[in-house]
Write a structure and sequence with these properties.
- About 30% of the residues lie in helices and about 20% in strands.
- It contains 17 helices and 22 strands.
- The protein is globular, with a radius of gyration of 23 Å.
Length: about 575
């Protein structure tokens, strides 16, 4: 769809209503009208089809096997055990392949057919959840680092993230009218959008909050990042980063991944005003003529950081303070049990590719049983992490043994027996449902990990903590450009091999081999791992070694503002 037509669809949508009601009621097709396929994104859903079946259905002269992905809006990925059980029930009743934890701390359902979309949305509402603005040219689900060691700080940061999410929601009542049969009040179609305006944003907009020393949210990959500055156990404010983003287009030098720039420091009570100023500046300055150049990172590249900062400060009504020092130790999750600040404990479970379903192991059943065990525990939480894993938070110490037994009985104890590479690996959904996928990702991850681990074993590196990320296309949903080793899909069975990011989320990787198959990828990695095993300094990470030895370029973020 041409970029100008997307802008036209938004402007003429009557507050994201379009003809969605008629499209959903049409019994002739499993699809929506073309314009409605754009508008339903703002309601938290994508129309897709099963690409595994596409050719066979074409031969049978049948339309594609249309289905919908539904994504929740869950700021910071915090759920109660009761909500987890509701989500589990929705996945069982209406979706395929269980639940999926995303890298933005949402839950995705795949394979929902059109006739069951409304029932799915209503079931989510009954669980005190929704899907408003989970997709589309709006502020997406606000992500928050899931650091289980700092419970009090996490609560502060999560509260701000939830308030910011609510502040930046679209004001249209279209979601409630369409899915919950709320009546359209007189003039309702003309509800003003004080933040978004009539045409919403030029492209999607991502916000993330990081809690040092853990950068699990990859804060420099966000359009707008907040880095919590903690003193004496309290959040005194946030360093603000702008202009990060992972998306790119193969072969197009006008598009590229970018790390955010640190602008300065803001007090907690001013963070929402600052965020609104950043979003509205992007709304008005962003490129609406060329959609692939419409993200904030390109606005800053084109206008300059100084001009962007001046405009943000003008709109916010105050100047940013100088950035304060911070330090990140890593951007992965730390698995197993952690002691909380209040005597409770937290368990981080490894969920491969974020997929929760009873396939090779009864993971979905196991988490259902754990949720039931925690159902009546005041304050217990299921925290979705930005690395597709799950933290069982605020567990009473007396229940630790019970939770451990349930996890082990259902194969959820991978964190206790897997290699670091397997624990830290990320993969996007890709085939068979993502329409942008050029190669496999989630489905390829297990087999590739087996071969990658064998290579590590050969060189005595089985316990080396190397971050591996696989993406089915260059758009970067698994944040591949921040992987020490990354595969970015180019064609079926072929990838670009990217190397040399760091383990703190502060350096981009570099193209090392282009358009190669798995055998060529492993052949390229073999001598590099051999050198790493023989020549690395004590404690030196693989990505750092590749940069130090000149094998790949240094694309580190410069942090002069916080030096």
């Amino acid at each position: 769809m041409a970029s100008h037509s997307v802008e036209d669809i938004k402007r003429t949508s009557r507050g994201l209503r379009g003809t969605l009601r008629a499209s959903l009621a049409d019994p002739v097709t499993g699809a929506l009208a073309e314009a409605d396929q754009t508008l339903i994104k703002y309601h938290g859903s994508y129309q897709q089809d099963d690409r595994d079946l596409r050719e066979e259905r074409r031969r049978q002269k049948l339309e594609p096997a249309y289905q919908f992905m539904v994504r929740t809006r869950t700021p910071g990925g915090v759920l109660t055990p009761a909500q987890w059980l509701r989500l589990d029930g929705i996945a069982t009743a209406y979706a395929e392949r269980g639940l999926r934890i995303t890298t933005r701390q949402a839950i995705q359902f795949h394979g929902v057919v059109k006739r069951e979309l409304k029932t799915t949305m209503q079931a989510l509402h009954a669980a005190l959840l929704d899907t408003i603005a989970a997709c589309g040219d709006v502020v997406r689900n606000v992500a928050v680092g899931a650091n289980p060691h700092l419970s009090g700080v996490h609560a502060e940061v999560h509260a701000l993230a939830a308030a910011l999410s609510a502040h930046l929601l679209p004001r249209t009542r279209a979601w409630y009218e369409l899915w919950l049969d709320e009546a359209l009040v007189a003039g309702g179609e003309d509800t003003p959008e004080p933040v978004y305006g009539q045409a919403y944003l030029p492209r999607k907009f991502k916000i993330g909050f990081a809690i040092p020393p853990v950068n699990d949210v990859d804060v420099f990959a966000q359009d707008l990042g907040f880095i919590a500055i903690v003193e004496a156990g309290r959040v005194v404010g946030y360093d603000v980063a702008v202009g990060g983003g992972m998306g790119a287009t193969h072969g197009d030098p006008e598009t590229f991944p970018r790390l955010g720039d640190v602008l300065g420091f803001v007090a907690p009570e001013r963070a929402i005003a600052l965020a609104e100023a950043v979003v509205t500046t992007q709304r008005d300055w962003g490129n609406r003529a060329v959609r692939k150049r419409a993200r904030l990172k390109y606005t800053i590249e084109d206008r300059g950081l100084a001009a962007f900062r001046a405009e943000v400060e003008r709109r916010a009504g105050f100047a940013l303070e100088p950035a304060r020092p911070f330090a990140f130790a890593h951007n992965g999750d730390r698995f197993g049990w952690a002691e909380g600040e209040d005597g409770r404990v937290h368990l981080t479970l490894r969920i491969p590719a974020g997929r929760v379903w009873d396939r090779e192991q009864p993971h979905q059943t196991g988490l259902r049983e754990i949720a039931r065990a925690l159902l009546d525990v005041d304050g217990a939480q299921f925290r979705l992490t930005p690395n597709q894993n799950l933290v069982l938070a605020n567990v009473p110490a007396a229940l630790r043994t019970r939770v451990d037994m349930l996890a082990a009985a259902h194969g959820l104890d991978l964190h206790a027996r897997a290699t670091p590479a397997r624990l830290d690996a990320l993969a996007c959904v890709a085939l068979p449902t993502c329409g942008l996928a050029m190669a496999e990702a989630e489905r390829h991850l297990p087999a590739f990990l087996d071969r990658f681990e064998a290579l590590l074993e050969r060189h005595g590196l089985r316990q080396a903590p190397i971050h591996l990320r696989i993406s089915g296309c260059p758009n970067g949903c698994s944040r591949p450009y921040l992987g020490e080793v990354a595969l970015v899909g180019k064609a079926p069975g072929r990838y670009n091999l990217m190397l040399g990011a760091d383990h703190r989320g502060q350096r981009l990787n570099t193209l090392y081999r282009e358009n190669v198959d798995e055998a060529a990828i492993l052949a390229a990695l073999d001598p590099l791992l051999a050198r790493y095993a023989a020549e690395c300094s004590e404690g030196e990470r693989f990505g750092d070694f590749l940069v130090r030895t000149g094998i790949v370029a240094d694309r580190s973020l410069r942090l002069e503002l916080v030096a």
